[in-house]
Amino acid sequence: MALIFRTRGAWPAVAxxxxxxxxxCSQGDGDSAxxxxxxxxxxxxxxxxxxxxxxxxxxxxxxxxxxxxxxxMAACMRAKGFTYTPHVRSDEVAFTPVDGEDYDxxxxxxxKYGFGLYAGAVYRDDPNVFGSAASNKRQDxxxxxxxxxxxTPAQKEAYKKATxxxxxxxxxxLGPGCLRDSREKAYGPEKxxxxxxxxxxxxxxxALADQQALNGDPQLVSLAQEYAGCLTKAGIPVTTTQPTSxxxxxxxxxxxxxxADGILSLDKDEALAKLTHEIGVAKKDxxxxxxxxxxxxxxxxxxxxxxxxx
Length: 310
Fold this sequence. Notes:
The protein is mainly alpha-helical. The protein is built from twelve helices and six strands. Helices cover 50% and strands 6% of the residues. The strands form three sheets. A two-stranded antiparallel ribbon has the order 1-3. A two-stranded antiparallel sheet has the order 2-4. Strands 5-6 form a two-stranded antiparallel sheet. Strand 5 (165-168) and strand 6 form a beta hairpin. The N and C termini lie close together (8 Å). Residues 1-43 have low confidence and may be disordered.
């Protein structure tokens, strides 16, 4: 579970939107509708025969909203004579036990994947390994992709009009349409720019106060120094001793070595050597920071400063 700083602007992140097809619709140029799309890659939860996604019982509030948005999008497009396959991508790959809040789970993970940075170049066919070719293919998969390829230019224009997506000054924008309607059903009406900026400023102030509380905590300061000393003895550079930054410091150092053209540019031997080194460093980091993390995460729960810390 990596703790990643998030701020919510005027609109939340868009749930993955599939490509639509005309289904007996009078819009377009009268061409027949394309055949139904197939779900060959199974990258995410997709709708059952009813055409609606069932919300998982254990889903958190944000995940539930993503399901509401996708189902609303499908219903809206059906009402306009289009076909849309609702689907919600799984974020399980992105949230791994690497952070060390659960020591045993982190140890098991790091012994095989390190920090999860170079692992995708070694386990290329594993869709559950972040950055692997299989994972990238799954994330890119769209259950309605076949529709897009088979639509005529006129049908594509009708599709865009139904969604409400358009270009304005070279950027994607939303006018009236199913995208806007489905988002409002899930997240409420779009906030004004002034309201969004005010909420963002307030959130920044709360985050700063939480960050200062954690960085000023005497116990965490002491344990961070001890953590740093252990890393130094292990030959690992220490660039910060701030409690809110210590947990990710070594991981970021490894991340800085990733080639500009990505991990998949490495050949098999290079990738294995990189991962082997990463695993060794990740294991040392976990052991050196064991006491620090045991104290940090309970305090973080009381001061939920959402930086990357893991």
